[in-house]
Design a protein that fits this description.
Layout: E1 10-25, E2 30-46, E3 50-54, H1 61-68, E4 76-81, E5 84-85, H2 91-98, E6 101-104, H3 118-128, H4 136-146, H5 163-176, E7 181-185, H6 193-210, E8 213-218, H7 221-227, E9 230-235, E10 238-244, H8 245-250, H9 255-263, E11 311-313, E12 318-320
Parallel strand pairs: 3-8, 3-9, 6-7, 7-8
Antiparallel strand pairs: 1-2, 1-4, 4-5, 9-10, 10-12, 11-12
Helix pairs in contact: 3-4, 3-5, 5-6
Bound molecules: iron/sulfur cluster (SF4).
């Protein structure tokens, strides 16, 4: 696949990553199966790039983000950050590598400790890692200015802020650690539409200023398309289409991607509304045989019910579908 940022090195490489949760039954709690939340995912992110990860709720995108952060256990596969495989590092090196990886959560209020004021929240990580370069108040006011908040507010508590301001605090906390890669897990979906654009613009400004790379997780393809250079479409734990944003939006190949675009207003796209997706996503504990999308696919063929489609790469997009 052609790489639109091919001159830049990878900050993150993910190879055949699987995150499975065992299903236990009986008094002996025997493992009788696995919930395959992430089931063989491969992608890379360049320095300064945003990869959008899109899919319906329950497709595994949040579990994928949490696995990259070390918040979920890897079943198999590899996560390589800045050239180092995270599973091979000793504890101390892993800790220092983790500073490079931060997360911004969906719900800005529950991500903030209600008993801590903003000064403590923003400088907590820096103090913990002995990274404070100045007085805490000075560092906090610099970070608050960076995200568009007045330093006068640093002694206030999370409940005294609006949703957009709280997300700015979360962003300041993430940026304080001088990360190189940030997982943005649905960072605007809990916010009013009017505030969403402001937060997206702030993330774009910070990406530009610090050369940050993002994994931008969202169920909304229109939001993802605003911030991402490339997009990965996820369905039932797997990436089923992957490519440059313009190609995914204007020339979607997989019927699921076309359904997502049909479901979301995309200005100027006349195909919108032509595909109606029926049914719900199957359980990742019992994925259907063959192509996992076949029970809902409007273009299903006999082969789809039996054989999982191999990945096809046309030099621009990767797609898993028997139509190609
Ligand atoms: Fe639809 Fe078949 Fe393609 Fe799956 S492989 S998306 S069922 S056409």
């Amino acid at each position: 696949m052609k790489n639109i940022m091919s001159d830049k090195p990878n900050i993150l490489e993910v190879k055949d990553l699987k995150t499975w949760f065992p299903i236990k039954r009986g008094v002996l709690a025997r493992t009788v199966g696995n919930v395959r939340a992430v089931d063989g995912v491969t992608f890379s992110v360049k320095r300064g790039e945003t990869l959008g990860l899109v899919g319906e709720s329950g497709c595994g995108k949040t579990t994928l983000g949490r696995t990259l952060l070390g918040l979920e256990k890897i079943h198999s596969g590899e996560v390589i950050l800045d050239g180092s495989s995270l599973s091979t590092l000793d504890r101390q090196t892993l800790q220092s590598m983790r500073q490079k990886l931060q997360i911004i959560f969906q719900d800005p209020l529950s991500a903030l400790n209600p008993r801590m004021n903003i000064l403590d929240i923003i400088t907590e990580g820096l103090a913990q890692f002995n990274m404070l370069s100045d007085r805490r108040e000075t560092v906090a006011s610099r970070l608050m200015a960076e995200v568009g908040l007045s330093a006068k507010m640093m002694y206030r508590y999370p409940h005294e802020f609006s949703g957009g301001q709280r997300q700015r605090i979360n962003i300041a906390r993430a940026v304080s650690m001088k990360p190189e890669f940030i997982v943005c897990d649905e960072p605007v979906s809990a916010l009013d539409v009017s505030v969403q654009a402001q937060i997206i613009n702030l993330l774009l400004d910070l990406r530009e200023k610090y050369g940050l790379a993002y994994l931008f997780i969202s169920h909304d393809l229109s939001v993802v398309s605003h911030i991402s250079q490339r997009v990965a479409v996820m369905y039932l734990g797997r990436i089923i289409e992957y490519g440059p944003t313009a190609a995914i939006i204007h020339n979607p190949k997989h019927p699921y991607t076309r359904a997502l675009i049909a479901a979301v207003p995309v200005p100027g796209d006349r195909r919108r509304g032509k595909i109606v997706l029926s049914g719900n996503m199957p359980s990742p504990a019992h994925p259907p045989p063959g192509c996992h999308f076949h029970p809902r696919c409007p273009e299903v063929m006999t082969v789809c019910r039996k054989t999982f489609p191999q990945e096809r790469d046309d030099g621009t997009q990767r797609v898993n579908c028997h139509l190609y």
